[in-house]
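Q: Can I see a sequence and its folded structure?
A: Here is a first one.
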Amino acid sequence: MSVATEFRQESEPGTGETTWRTVHRVVFPVDGDTDTLPLYVDFDAARRVVEEDTTSKRGSKTPQLVVQSSQIRSDFILDRRRLSLPAHQRVSFGTYFNAFPASYWRAHTDVQKVRLSIEVDAEATVIVYKSSPRGSSNRVQSMHTSGSTTATCELPLTTFADGGWYWFDLVAHGRDVTLKSADWSVPQPDGFKPGTLSIAVTTFNRPDYCVKHLRNFAGSEDLLGVMDRLIVTDQGNQKVRDEPGFDDAAANLGEKFTLVEQGNLGGSGGFARGMLEAVEGGESDYVMLLDDDVVVETEGVLRAVNFADFTRHPTIVGGHMFNLFERSVIHNFGEGINQYRFQYEALGQERSAHDFAASNLRTTPWMHRRVDVDYNGWWMCLIPTSIIREIGLALPVFIKWDDVEYGIRAGANGYTTVSLPGAAVWHMPWTEKDDTIDWQAYFHQRNRWVAALLYSQYRKGGRLPIESFLKDVRHLLSLQYSAVELRNRALKDLLDGPSHLHETIGSKLAEIRAIRSSFPDAQVTNDLTQFPAVKRQHIPKFGLAPSRPKNYAQAVSSAFSGALRQLRPVSPAAKENPEAVVAAADARWWRLAHLDSALVSASDGTGASWYRRDNVRFRKQLLTSVILHARALGRWDELSSSYRKELPNFTSPEAWGKTFEAASVADEQKPSR
């Protein structure tokens, strides 16, 4: 039996009745990276204690965590499936990648039970645990092995309505024991047909990452068993086909690889092309959208496919995102939409930037409650092709909100999105950049409004218009005039109606970059010695720099005084020398509103910009913002009706096909490098 076949199916010996299908294998990292090891194996003897919650009005007890540190042993890992445990040692597999997310299977499939199979070569004890939605763990079963054998146990899924996981601990007795394999399998129904997928990667000038993808996928026999095609949509001028190693990597994939080259239509254009290629190819049940600059846990791709195979109805299955720079830190556990604000946000603030190395799955109570999401980011997201055929391709918005809108659109058509634990990639975190003040400010503004016009259930978009205007005010107080200019232009285009989306998707980026480049706050200088010396004529009151307002009254007072300052003429001295140096983390309205000029560090640390107050520009941009927001509010119902009516048209394969054709022609006119 081949490895790929073994992963997919196994019959119960001797009965001939139940066919068990492996859906979740226990795996290990093989690169010796101790940063990621806590996501696979937990070496700590976890202790959970209850201490008084001083914030509780009733003095109730709230679980608090005490984690015992221990040495992480990468030398225990033998290969992708095997681990060697020394005598009298104990390890737990109650971890992100190796625990079984029972509540997700309970909620979205008809599976009633799961079977754990563990193969060892010596005397050992296997202790099986389950958790409740509150994070409390319960010992379920203990299995003793006396030698080389495979131990199995069947476990019900009936008690996981709101949350909970299964996992096991392995204890070695008087001699070393090797865990040869372990997996979780579910009963396969009669007539079951496993699905296959195409993987669609969109790239722009990251040919090295794409070649790594090709090598990674070609080297996974199991993944090749379910992958019909890897579709790479190259939208850059540094071509993937020119990257060293491309020819060999592509040859290893053979007919399973498709390279598409087109002009830069952003993430939505690249992913829409991947969707279309997969649907028109006709061989795949699913298409998985994948960012180009991610590190993939290939086992997670297989788990997403297996989970989708068993869902009651076609379901979008997404993966989580871990920090590429802090490998044990997850971005968050679920994404949702605040309908009143019409803004995406983490579902529960405690789920943002959690470090598994500090508190692993077993010692993190909130992680045991199932998180039901509104959408999943397209860093890793599996979409059934049947859904695409019904509701269309991505929204033609270049970048930002395309993944959010698609999840909302799918939900409006009765389809669920699941962010599946155990399926994940590593990606650069958003904290390393601030894309709300660079050229992407245009797309943040326009696309949020487009999505709200399509789906907001609140009159006039709820709180969105006032939040949008106040954000302009904050940018103006922060001397970020380029961002306000782009946001104003976004509203102007929004008012033109839905026809502008396809018409401008290939040309808008160049236009807004040219506009932004003329503003001082957008001009980053890498050599800080080129700036004049810092001098300040008017010293701050009491020698203290402004600090973040502590309450609403302070915020109003600071904003009012800062706004009054914007109306005054700019000090001539501030035009010659910056008044202060402000770190990127401190570049907020309450700090910059009280300066005439400042050197502000770029969020990525590459340089700095010289922000300069411009009282004339402040008044003009503020007035423009007021007028545009008033027009958008006045025409809300008309615009909403127009965008909703045209949604099936501008997300259709026909509309996208014309855009792809135009982009391909434009791309042919550009040099390769």
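Q: Show me another, different protein.
A: A second, unrelated one:
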Amino acid sequence: MFCAIGLVLLTLAFASPGTQVLGKLFQGPTEEILKRAYDVIIVGAGAGGGATASRLTEDPRVRVLLIEAGGSDFMNLNISVPARASTLSRSRFDWNFTTVPQVGLDNRAVLYPRGFVLGGSTAINQMVFCRGTKDDYDRWARLTGDEGWSFEKLAPFVRSVDRMTLPTDRHNTSGQFDPSIHHHVGTVPISVAGFPLPINSRVINTTAQLPDLFPFNLDYNSGDTIGIGWTQSTIHDGRRVTSATSYLAEAWSRSNLDIVVNTRVTKVLPVGYESGKPVMRGVEIAQTAGGRTHTLKAREEVVLSAGSIKTPHILLLSGIGDASYLSSMGIQPLVDLPAVGRNLHDHAFLGNSWLVNSNDTLDNLRVNSTLAAEALTQWQANGTGPLGIAGGSQFGWLRVPNASDFFAALGVADPSAGATSAHFELITTDGFISKRIAPPTEGHFFSFITAVISPTARGNVTLNSTDPFDAPIINPNLLGTDVDIAVMREAVKAARSFVAAPAWSDYIISEFGAFAEAHTDEELDAYIRNNTDTVDHPVGTVAMGKGAQGALDSDLKVKGTIGLRVVDASAFPFIPSGHTQGPTYILAERAAAMILRDI
């Protein structure tokens, strides 16, 4: 049964030291894969695809093929070490996308990292775990007309994801999260930071000194994110947790799951028609541009989980999208669905740094190779030390003051989902941070990442050509509205107010670089435009919704088709006011339940 060329046996150490799971993995489309019959074919092994494959194969009657475009080296050292997350952009684990010039960023194009390995973007992200807010999901429910997407109704699926674990250093976590809202049987281990940072007490003391501006939030995963609290991350025993090391680890030994890597789905194909609709249960696959293609057919469904960039790309190449646009590109329209590729939106990222009165920051790991080597040795021994965290231990979400008046003056309604959802985010970092400029070779820093968390700008994904191996054209339209610029300006002002608290009086020396020169609103806007980048949270390009604004019905089925569903962040009608990894897992949990119900 096992092909010696295409099949690899992997030994994976996942859940805890000493626990091993054996599994099979095909490095390409072998004859065994091509001849086997599958009930469901899933495209993409990120948060959506990995979780869906695992849940479906819990039913031994359902045979699943999971296809990943990237490779299988998801236990690579740079992926596993949390502190090395920043090295993964422009690596072999990245699709290496770049946006078009962004009008809101002084016409700069920016890198647009997306995961290209088993685990998808869960293997290259910053590992923050957020569920999303009550208002976020309730807005989804209203927009889709499906109460199943409400915060209350999603609770069972949240429980299936969430597994709170001890931090690596096993410190007392009292007061750092609310145990009553977490679970111990979910698939994805999460934890608070397992390495103490000198700034921790200063951050928490600020919430006591300035409670009206920066209230303490014991647990932002309660459904109300507002305030400053302790970060919860997909880190376990000091190692990154991905959809491969969690969901796929649980499924690895199941005989009804096959996984093939290094293989791209170039388009989805109709295998017939029912009631005038194409039955989209076929996929075309290839490993190289111009190379041999193969066709596979699912008995029940094809599930696109290729992410917010590749999922619309595949649909457009398949003739599913705006018919007039497809015709102009020389593609025969199959389903006229103008919403495909539209509604792209993302969180905007800005690093703001201060020089500090300390020689004990994470900057030392960047400039001192001996110290970095010692930290790696410690991490390899037991997962402890500074390499087992992702840069900061606290962050928070805040709303602009007098929000109604603020947005009315800008001529728009409040873009957030409601009172539990933020307008901007503050992320603490024990060191220098910027995606725009190289880090200084000397000095010690404290940084706040400010992020626009309820953006109003919308962009799109379109075709560069009809060659499926050409990257699509990506325009997230970062800071593309005056509203988003104004919110980022308020976020920077909030960061300055935060470090003006007494807790920082003997620590902060001065603002650093261009940040120090930006004081008036005009100067701040120029600084923001010249230094902002992406948080890497693209969503919405094949969104659920009623009417022409939605590409998907509320059950995630592609409108106008049979047998085709989307399970990834492209299905989000609105971006959550938090990081997108957790909501994608939650969406996949419900999606898997709906698929099992239907097949």
